């Protein structure tokens, strides 16, 4: 089979104005970024249509390091729905340069189920990530200048909570000292970098409902504390308007197309293991305005991405998915069934069956949210008919819908079975109201307990002294009602990335709690998770090149 980038190059793209017009967006509202990419103004969102149309979430079992193809399936489901005569759109997150040049090599789908132009989307796209990076670091520069200018007065700050970000994987920048070289170069301080996807600005961009809400949230960002223990915010620094100016274009959803010319909104890019893992509310609402079916995904397994999608994004935006699709692969099932990672492409009936426990835990969790659940088996070339039949039979025994998909190899045609099951499930099964894991007014400890025990299966939670200090600060600030965003490994229900399958009765350690006062959520750091990833031994950057004017190595 051809590579992803070969398939992408051979696809004859429609002009983006034509894609928009087919969707129903007037041509004079399309803000072109070249021939095949555009931004769409947010005043076109019709919230009455948003409430009337069908939102579908695509999530997954706990992935292996190669993933389970969730983005590919999300795109393929939209293609399949259009194949059977439904008007469907997909809404996805933007790829980050860090993983693209680190391990993934790209994040725009795969095979004949991609969003295009994939080279642009995987690289600089419309500059949204750069805008977030610039906005975040502009705040840092202005904050450092404030500290420098007030270093001899009582208006200085005793505690700083704001660092820098960069859209690369660079472990050397996690902890640094800045301001060295004498007083002319600033005030020396311990600081560090997070990856741009973990920036509070990224979370704000994805949760803001309009430009005024964006400005309000930016103004509320907590930067540190004064010497009399009062919170110091971006609004106190007097720069909320200036930072909003840097983000005014980035706020607008990006419109692209799939390999079969289906419209796709690709906007925002928080990771689900260190942030809330969903594309922007505005892109989701834009898609729901113009399509009868809007398919979106939440990052990594359902314990991370789907949980945050429901408890944070849906709670804040008033969204309620009609159903959740859980993507499973034979390779991930076998990994969680105790098969060594080097052997998961080989047939192993017993290992596959043991891995059903992981699938069942995710199904159970989604039903706790009141969701109707469908399992789709994302077929790889190494999968056998026996393996597919075993998964289908197991889902039948569990009373859960099952559909095979081959969207990677066959595009929309390979998603027809899944699309028909989705439509049939929505039309013939009554939906329940969305149920949250915790209430807004629950204490923070109770929120953490309900997620850790109810979703992950932990038996106990312990807090470091730093986390205990943060709990007191949260109480003093009166923000205990904020939802929690747990940052932990994506490879396990626990905080141990090698604890495959379903681990029960484990202990979770809360190492820190980061107050995202602008995003209005509390980021709970568990275990050894890093908000600035490192690079693998052989980064994908070694394989990315430009040859005769053509980019190679992206996927």
UniProtKB/TrEMBL annotation:
Describe the family membership recorded for this protein in Swiss-Prot or TrEMBL: Belongs to the formate--tetrahydrofolate ligase family.
Gene symbol here is fhs
Pathway assigned in UniProt: One-carbon metabolism; tetrahydrofolate interconversion
- GO BP annotations listed: tetrahydrofolate interconversion
Instruction: State the protein's name.
Output: Formate--tetrahydrofolate ligase
The reply on keyword Iron is no
The record's section on InterPro entries has:
Formate_THF_ligase, Formate_THF_ligase_CS, P-loop_NTPase
Name the source organism.
Candidatus Alistipes avicola
| SUPFAM superfamilies with a match to the protein in the record | P-loop containing nucleoside triphosphate hydrolases (SSF52540)
Output the Gene Ontology terms for molecular function. Answer: ATP binding; formate-tetrahydrofolate ligase activity
According to its UniProt record, which reaction does this protein catalyse? (6S)-5,6,7,8-tetrahydrofolate + formate + ATP = (6R)-10-formyltetrahydrofolate + ADP + phosphate
The EC category is ligase
The UniProt keyword set, sorted, is: ATP-binding, Ligase, Nucleotide-binding, One-carbon metabolism
Keyword set includes Nucleus: no
Q: Which CDD domains match?
A: FTHFS (cd00477)
Q: What is its EC number?
A: 6.3.4.3
């Amino acid at each position: 089979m051809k590579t992803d980038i070969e398939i992408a190059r051979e696809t004859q793209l429609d002009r983006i104005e034509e894609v928009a017009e087919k969707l129903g967006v007037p041509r004079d509202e399309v803000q072109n970024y070249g021939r095949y990419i555009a931004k769409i103004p947010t005043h076109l969102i019709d919230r009455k249509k948003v409430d009337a149309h069908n939102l579908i979430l695509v999530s997954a079992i706990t992935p292996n390091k190669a993933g389970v193809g969730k983005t590919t399936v999300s795109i393929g489901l939209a293609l399949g729905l259009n194949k059977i005569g439904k008007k469907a759109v997909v809404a996805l997150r933007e790829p980050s340069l860090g993983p693209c040049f680190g391990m993934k090599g790209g994040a725009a789908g795969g095979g004949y189920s991609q969003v295009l132009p994939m080279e642009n989307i995987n690289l600089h796209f419309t500059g949204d990530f750069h805008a977030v990076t610039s906005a975040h670091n502009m705040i840092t520069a202005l904050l450092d200048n404030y500290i420098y200018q007030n270093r001899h007065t009582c208006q200085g700050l005793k505690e700083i909570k704001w660092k820098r970000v960069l859209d690369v994987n660079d472990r050397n920048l996690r902890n640094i000292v800045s301001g060295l070289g004498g007083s002319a170069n600033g005030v020396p301080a311990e600081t560090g970098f997070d990856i741009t996807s973990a920036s509070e600005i990224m979370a704000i961009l994805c949760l803001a409902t309009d430009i005024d809400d964006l400005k309000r949230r930016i103004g509320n960002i907590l930067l540190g504390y004064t010497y009399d223990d009062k919170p110091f915010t971006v609004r106190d620094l007097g720069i909320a308007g200036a930072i909003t100016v840097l983000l005014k274009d980035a706020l607008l959803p990006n419109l692209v197309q799939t390999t079969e010319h289906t419209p796709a909104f690709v906007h925002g890019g928080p990771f689900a293991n260190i942030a809330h893992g969903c594309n922007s509310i505005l892109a989701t609402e834009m898609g729901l305005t113009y399509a009868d079916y809007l398919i979106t995904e939440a990052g990594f397994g359902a314990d991370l991405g789907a949980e945050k999608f429901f408890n944070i994004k849906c709670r804040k935006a008033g969204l309620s998915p009609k159903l959740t699709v859980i993507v499973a692969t034979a390779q991930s099932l076998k990994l969680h069934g105790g098969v060594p990672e080097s052997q998961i492409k080989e047939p192993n009936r017993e290992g596959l069956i043991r891995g059903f426990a992981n699938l069942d835990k995710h199904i159970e969790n989604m039903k706790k949210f009141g969701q109707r659940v469908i399992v789709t088996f994302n077929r790889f070339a190494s999968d056998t008919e026996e393996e597919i039949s075993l998964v289908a039979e197991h889902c039948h025994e569990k009373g859960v819908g099952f559909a095979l998909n081959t969207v990677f190899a066959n595009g929309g045609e390979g998603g027809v079975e899944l699309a028909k099951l989705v439509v049939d499930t929505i039309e013939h099964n009554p939906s329940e109201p969305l149920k949250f894991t915790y209430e807004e007014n629950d204490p923070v400890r109770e929120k953490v307990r309900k997620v850790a025990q109810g979703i992950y299966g932990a038996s106990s939670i312990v807090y470091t002294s730093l986390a205990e200090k943060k709990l007191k600060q949260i109480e003093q600030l009166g923000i205990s009602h904020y939802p929690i965003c747990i940052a932990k490994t994506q490879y396990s229900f626990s905080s141990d990335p090698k604890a495959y399958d379903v681990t029960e009765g484990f202990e979770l350690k809360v190492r820190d709690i980061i107050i995202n006062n602008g995003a209005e959520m509390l980021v709970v750091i568990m275990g050894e998770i890093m908000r600035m990833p490192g690079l693998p031994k052989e980064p994908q950057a070694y394989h990315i090149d430009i040859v005769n004017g053509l980019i190679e190595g992206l996927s």
